[in-house]
Amino acid sequence: MYSVIRKFLALHHHLSLPxxxxxxxxxxxxxxxxxDHRILPSKNKIVFSNNTIPAEKxxxxxxxxxxxxxxxxxxxxxxxxxxxxxxxxxxxxxxxxKGVGTLTKQSANVIAFQPDExxxxxxxxxxxxxxxxxxxxxxxxxxxxxxxxxxxxxxxxPQQVLKEKWWIAASILAIIGIAAIIFYYTTHK
Length: 189
Fold this sequence. Notes:
The protein is α+β, with helices and mostly antiparallel strands. It contains five helices and eleven strands.
C-alpha cells in the first residue's frame, strides 16, 4: 500500500489519510543566493497538516486500478491500512514512509512530519555578473541607481582643491591682538 500511496501523491500532489493528516506537494521556486553567487533550482517539498479530510473518490478509484481490485475492496484495504498505521504510530511513535518522510507522534492529536529530500531535476549553477568595458550598466549607490557613465564622470572629474586660507584667520587675530595692546597702553599711561 505504501507504493500506491507514494505514486498517488507524486501524480496528484495531495493525499489525505483519515485520522492522521493531509500531505500536499508544494513547489519551492528557484532561489538566487547572492552571497555564494549561485542559483538554486526549484524543487518539490511535501507539507503535512494534522487536519483530517476524508479521502476522495478518485483516490479509491486509483487504488482499485493499481491493485486490480474492485472499489469496495480498495476502500476496505485502505481503511485497514490507515487503522494499522494509527496503531503503529501509537506504539512506536514514529513511522518512516520511504520516499515521503517520517511521521512522529507528538501528542494525542498532534503528529509531526519530517519530509525526505527530493532530488532536484535541475542542477544548481554558479553565476557571475559580466560587466563589459565601455558598456553602460546600472550601479546601486546607496539607495539610488545610477548609470556607470554617471559614476565614472563623478569619480574622475578633477577635484577643486580648496586653497588653504588659514593665514586670513591668523591675520585677523593678529590685528585684534595688536589693537587690544595699543588700546591697553593708551588707556593706562
